[in-house]
Specification:
Layout (H helix, E strand, L loop, with lengths): L4 H11 L3 H11 L9 E12 L2 E5 L4 H4 L5 H9 L9 E5 L23 E4 L4 E4 L5 H12 L4 E5 L29 H17 L4 E5 L22 H18 L4 E2 L2 E5 L4 H10 L1 H6 L2 E7 L5 H14 L4 E6 L12 H16 L5 E6 L1 E3 L13 E3 L6 E3 L1 H10 L7 E7 L6 E8 L2 E8 L5 E5 L5 E7 L6 E7 L3 E4 L3 E8 L3
Helix pairs in contact: 4-5, 6-7, 7-8, 11-12
Length: 494
């Protein structure tokens, strides 16, 4: 990852008194002229990461929305490229089976999952039964039918029968690993059997991700969902076993992980041991993590991204999970849309994310009107007969509709009067896509340096939702409405 110059310059201007000196030094690193005060300049010859796709998780809504009256509508809105978001990646949750655990400690209904393990009472052993989890499998099928080109199979926890506590919600004591080492191989066999089953059925399984947020202290007194704590050493040992078994089986999918929950102080400890492992360093080219708890932390994200790039220059980072935490914003407001758009821009430019995936796509909410606080993209009513849009759905579409898998991020510079404007740009054959976020409370006029023939402009603000506001010959001047997200698509030819 190379640092996005626009973001770095803005950060330094705001935080470093001797910016003029530092700007002179950086000018030798980023050899392009400073833009005019109101200019947004795309630097096509400065390329960064290749983008691998947009996605969303199926936890935990899929097991309830699947086989409901709105399942096809939800799948279209998420994965269809014409009328929906056009997402590439669907994350299927291989559940830990708490919905079937008679001793389950999880208090929530949605966060208990089915599994493919069924107890054979005659033998006393758990056996595979792929007829289970029918609703979630239905949503995965609809995702693929509507355009999803990659399935990631992830686990919040091993099956409860494999755990030390007998619960997929974590150990009886927090911060203790809940998977005994003697059960590592059984867990590996289970996950790979599920993956091979779906591959045999023709599903485009791109990766398995068996470790999710290992640094959190799952269990103890908090049992709101399935989860499992692992130390960095335990994480590496388990994932090495996955890698070895996948190599022996010639698995046609990748190993993803370990999906750290945040860029906290121990984040790098997992990365370091992960890539110090000869097996994982050779077998894995991507490190997955979640962008929680650092929203709008420009300095923290830049430092995390820079450290990853310097230490692991041949590896990719993917942002595999994010939602607003804690969820405090009105889901129907432009505030929530701007919030999400800024996080995506920061993850792409500061972390160099090669893919970006939202967490829960669908939430369950009543039709009460007024303020709704939901961390999801869509909402369904309790009868599963009506779908409603959160404002952040449209924020996501500004990126997903025009930045295709295979596009390369390119440089963007903004003038000194545009401190409230965040931007990111991508280049693909015959097309430039520029997404700008105007966080200012006033409209902002900008100057562009585009050289294309045709321009399309899409706008989301307080009253518009991903509305096409211009379609015609390329223009050099543009006004960003107050508190808005604006996507400019520039193409050559008619």
């Amino acid at each position: 990852m190379k640092v996005n110059a626009m973001t770095l310059f803005q950060f330094l201007r705001k935080t470093v008194p001797v910016f003029a000196l530092i700007f002179g030094i950086l000018a030798t690193i980023f050899p392009f002229a400073a833009p005019d005060a109101d200019a947004v300049r795309i630097v096509e010859n400065r390329t960064f990461q290749r983008f691998d796709g947009w996605g969303v998780s199926g936890a935990w809504w899929a097991q309830f929305v699947g086989n409901s009256p709105v399942d096809e509508e939800v799948a279209r809105l998420l994965f269809d490229g014409e009328s929906g978001l056009g997402l590439d990646i669907y994350r299927y949750n291989i559940g830990g089976g708490e919905a079937e655990n008679p001793a389950s400690r999880i208090w929530g209904g949605w966060t208990k999952t089915e599994s493919f393990y069924v107890l054979n009472e005659r033998t006393g052993r758990y056996e595979l039964d792929f007829s289970r989890d029918a609703n979630a499998r239905r949503m995965m099928d609809l995702a693929v039918r509507n355009g999803a080109s990659g399935i990631v199979l992830f686990c919040n926890s091993p099956h409860f029968s494999l755990t030390a506590s007998g619960h997929a919600s974590g150990g009886l004591t927090a911060n203790a690993s809940n998977l005994p080492r003697e059960n590592y191989q059984r867990f590996v066999d289970y996950v790979l059997a599920v993956a091979d089953h779906f591959v045999a059925l023709g599903y485009p399984v791109r990766a398995v991700s068996p470790v999710n947020e290992p640094q959190w202290g799952w269990g103890g007194d908090w049992v709101g969902q399935e989860g499992c704590h692992y130390t960095p050493e335990e994480t590496v040992d388990l994932l090495e076993l996955f890698a070895v078994n996948m190599m022996r089986r010639h698995s046609p999918y990748a190993l993803s992980g370990p999906e750290n929950g945040a860029m906290s102080k121990d984040w790098f400890a997992y990365q370091r041991l992960y890539f110090q492992s000869p097996v994982l360093n050779a077998f894995c080219d991507t490190y997955s993590g979640h962008s929680y708890w650092m929203d709008n932390d420009i300095k923290g994200k830049w430092l995390a991204g820079k450290r990853f790039a310097l230490c692991f220059p041949r590896k990719k980072f993917e942002m595999s999970e994010w939602c607003e935490l804690p969820c405090t914003l009105d889901s129907n407001s432009i505030d929530s849309a701007l919030y999400m758009a800024n996080v995506i821009q920061q993850d792409l430019t500061l972390l160099g994310a090669a893919s970006w995936q939202a967490w829960t796509a669908v939430g369950l909410h009543g039709e009460t009107g007024g303020v709704v606080k939901s961390d999801t993209l869509l909402r369904v009513n309790p009868a599963y007969t009506k779908v409603s849009f959160n404002k952040r759905y449209y924020a996501y579409r500004h990126f997903t509709a025009h930045v295709e898998s295979g596009a390369f991020r390119v440089g963007v510079l903004t003038g000194c009067s545009l401190d409230d404007v965040a931007a990111v740009a991508f280049k693909s054959p015959g097309k430039l896509t520029l997404v700008m976020i105007n966080n200012a409370a006033v409209a902002t006029a900008i100057q562009l340096n585009n050289t294309g023939d045709r321009m399309q402009v899409f706008t989301t603000d307080a009253v518009r939702n991903y509305e096409r506001t211009y379609d015609g010959a390329c223009r050099k001047q543009l006004t960003l409405p107050a508190r808005s997200i604006v996507t400019v698509v520039i193409t050559a030819g008619g």
